[in-house]
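Lab meeting minutes (informal)
Scribe: AK
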Amino acid sequence: MVVVRVLISLAITALTLTSLAPTAAAVIVRGSNGRFLAVTLRPGVSPATLRGPLATVSQQPRSSASATGEVTYHGGPVVHSSDPFLVYWAPSGESIPADSQSLLERYLADVAADSGEPDDVFGVDRQYYDRQGFADYRQAFDPARQVVFDPRPYPARDVAHCRDLVASYLTCITDGQLQAELKRLIEANGLPTAGSLSELSTNAPVYFVILPTDVNICVDGGLICADDSMCAYHNDFSLRHAGTVLYAAIPAQAGFNYEGLTWPKICQNDGTAAVQEPNGDIADVLVGLLSHEYSETLTDPISPTGWNSPDNGNEVGDNCQWTGRFAPLALSNPNAYSPVLGGSSSSGTLFDQLIHGDQYYTQSEWSNGDGTCEPKPPSGTIVPRITPPAGRIAARTSLRFTPSASTSTHPYSSATWSFGDGSRQSFYKGRTALAPATHTYAAPGSYTITLTLVDNRGNLQSTARTVTVQPPACVVPNVKGKSRRRATEAIRAAQCALASLSIPRRHGRKRSELVVAYQSPRAGTVRPSGTRISLTLVYIPVRHSTPRRSRLRSRAPAAQETTRRWGLDPIDSSVSGA
């Protein structure tokens, strides 16, 4: 049992510990229940050959995006930060090798230790964004609280939806049964959940559910199964009163053969003959599949509302599934598993990722910025600069900060502003990345402003600047000629206060208006907030816009003299009180 703090989103990845094969066609499909799944099909499996009423988002390209590999944004959320969990579902009589567990836990610990660094494949994902921020792999991993052992027996086989049972698969579970177990486990252990379809939480939990090697998984009513159709998929469902649950499944492969490829090589199609295990464990292949599904969970957690091809549903990992010619529609790329950093192909020790000093072998991820697959963001220099507003910086005043002096080797993907006062970050994406940011501080004090720029390759750089916010300023308004009410409103709106009023006696019976003739301090003076302003008011005659003979008779001499003395014009009756 593990108790963890409640957060607002859940991303779950179900993995099986064993046979893992090269990847095949990967598409977003609409299941018979109307929900979407992002499915990584095995080599040789076309969506058209799947059993039952399964349809891809689009069978034929409608634009050049698929041919070029470009993925586009569809309005949904991405994951801005995450806490990965490992859940080992192994009832009595089943086991998951301790060495494999150790390698998986070390991998997540290494990724968390290098969290936010530009030197691994997750950095490429940062070029993708939603309306609130960019997809990031800022992570924390503590095995003491983020590794969960689940000994609950597997449910009885759903014969109608889990029909495939062979000697190598002693158990078959459906995606629905997996969801039910995740729901039970979350509720029984107080595991973090919740969130919304529109915005996932900070530190969204990411659960990797690890299954023994003899467990088959079928999804969408048995239309797609691990033993005959797919390498992996990710999906989502909702918990009542708890929010969205995101999860992915990477089932074990056993006995499947395609053009001479069997597990685990069938899901590590890198053009080499040997299974590459730089750490000498089958979990090395699991790490590669975990990396693929994790990146796609970060960038398209609720398929197909995140980043994917508008034509065939390919996500950022799908364009880079196996080594071959540049053909995003065929899921091949010459950089799928290159460049390698060391090891021997023939001995099965190649590695292409060095994360926190440890060696791993994973596929690369698609980069829109340079139109190919990348194992990490290609080099680029970003120099962010913050230009604060000129003059006095005061609280309760709208302030304008500009990043236009910043420079970058590559085009910008996004800009994130943090103003150091606990307020929500300001986020600008795409062509608006260098737009000025405005912010109003509620109180005076010293605040650290941080600007984070990301380019369209995934490179990131931040800068910080401290500003001292003064008490709100009273900029004395010009209220000369205004009525008493309008003058008072203007004074309060300018963060000033009314000190005293000097009002003369009224002369004569002719219609006249009380207006400001003199103010102290003078207009335009900048004083501390709350500065008190003294006003002298006088009566001046009202000039009617439609005069009658009776109204043109001589005005009271005293009122006429007041008008000349203070340099005020008679007030037109049509605007009286202005």
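Next up, CB showed the second protein from the same session:
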Amino acid sequence: MVDPLEASIQTGTSAHVELKDYLRILRRRWFTIVLLLVLTVGAAAALTLSATPQYASTARLFVSTSPADTSQAYQGNLFATQRVSSYADIVKGRQLADRVAGAMDQGFEGSDLVGKVKAVVVPETVILELTATDPNADTARDIAQTYADELSQMVAELETPEGSDTPLIKASIVDDARANYTAVSPNIPRNLGLAVVLGLLLGVGIAVVRELLDTSISSAEDIEQSTAAPVVGNIFFDAAATKKAPSVSLDQATPWAEAYRVLRTNMQFVQVDSPTKVFVLTSSLPAEGKTTTAINLAVTMAMAEQRVVLVEADLRRPLISERLGLVGAVGTTSVLVGKIGLDEALQPYEDTGLQVLTSGPIPPNPSELLQSQAMDRLLNDLRERFDVVIIDAPPLLPVTDAALIARQADGAFVVVRHGKTTKDQLAHAVERIEAVDARVLGVVINRTPQKRKGSAYGYGYGYGYGYAPDPAKLAAQEDDAVAEQIEANQAAEPGPAPTVEPAVEKAIQARAPEAPVDEEATKRPAKRGDSLAPAAAAPPAEEPDEFAWLSELREPAEETNAGLDVFSSAAPETDPLFGPSPEGDDDWRSSTAERRLAPMRGEDPGWPEFPIEESDMGVNDVDPSENGTGTTGGKGEGKRRRRRTRR
């Protein structure tokens, strides 16, 4: 397939040239056009600004005759019209310039004034305009006026017949020269406008020439001119991704990684009826990215839970073992010559599930090994073990190894480098494969620019814009999740953290070693206002109940003081305050425990009010008449609770 623009130029016609062809050139070669435009405008601006300003002044003369009657007037007008052109030529002469230089007496030479004055005849009139230019406006006025005076005298001398004092034609000054202090040169808008037009014409012309001379592959249309194989993938260039391990960079949501996923998807439609697929990845010349493409494609397929093996068949310049950090001493060569078995030669690549068969020792006869029966048996063995077999083969144009392997495989994919591989190189590479009755399954364009240039590159839906999650949205979702977890924890908690009553302090210290709390919390004495929650809380999903230690205290124990009665709920049959538990009331125990914990939270427990008798006071009880001093128990920390008995 021949480019329509190139074909039209070769044939000398423009019948097949369409507007889209020129637009395609403008889009692909826009940098050249813009560069030449900027250079042209810059040069014009520099010349314009560096030029010396010039000022102009104009004087006008009227050429006429002196007729005696009307008929002679008409003939005289024709005569004057013919003469005025001759007078314009006299202005360019050296004789008039010398007369003007002498009359001005400003140090000018006649040769200096010749180029400063221009004579123009107004069309269909007998008016002659003399315009003088000079860097000084006053000097320009003097030159124009002196030229008009001297020309008028010179015409009178030339047109006066011998023996007569009256000239037949005279040149009369109708407009004297005046000083104009506005520079007429350089004209900046005009110069820059012309530079823009010239720059665009020059840029477009060079862009068209470059397009005709450039045979590198940069679009799907260029590939169609060399082969009928489809474009199955476009691998974007990402310098940051190539510096990372394939297992890391391909697991990220980047346009580069997505390009390999698109390639993996497209390759699933190749050889659909075959349960096992053996593909060869090769290129026209070295340094086009075939090995990198083979590695990343194999890792991408392995990440999709496919049984994939990567075979290094480039026995001349092997690179896979070095890039993946594997052992290169054993591999394909070792298996082909029978030194080790296939199971011993296969190496796993990290935790991707990919199996790699490196090249092994470099043999002196790679072509003979690759077309041997041992290679055929190796491929058959790999077919039985794996779903996909990817073979990294040498370039097609320097050696014939890749073509030999492609004949034994299901087909070959040719990797081309954007802007480097030429159409002729791709065409010759395809011919090498087809010459051995092998198939070209597709073409992969490598190192395509992130931004779209020219038309579409075939398969794929990305042209450099990624589809990764928005980091801001991820952060917002994490914040919302944390807030919801905090609200859930607060809703699950019965209330504010309880504080330890003085009467219970000894009980906590005595029973704390048996409670499932933090060891550091049990070593320090509890103080009023301290929380009973563990010192280091676990994650919300596994956070223990902050009142779990109460289960250890709910055991039958000897009452040493009235304060322990608050926690004595171990006896299920009889409550010390409310007596026997009601039968069938499952919530009785939980409601009673909640009432006992209410004072620690500063809440009203809701106990029924009963009169307190003197006999009801224990040894640690405080008499109301005493201000914080017990009758028998010593000094306390305030009024302590009295035991109440249910009546």
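CB comment: The longest helix spans residues 188-213.
No objections, moving on.
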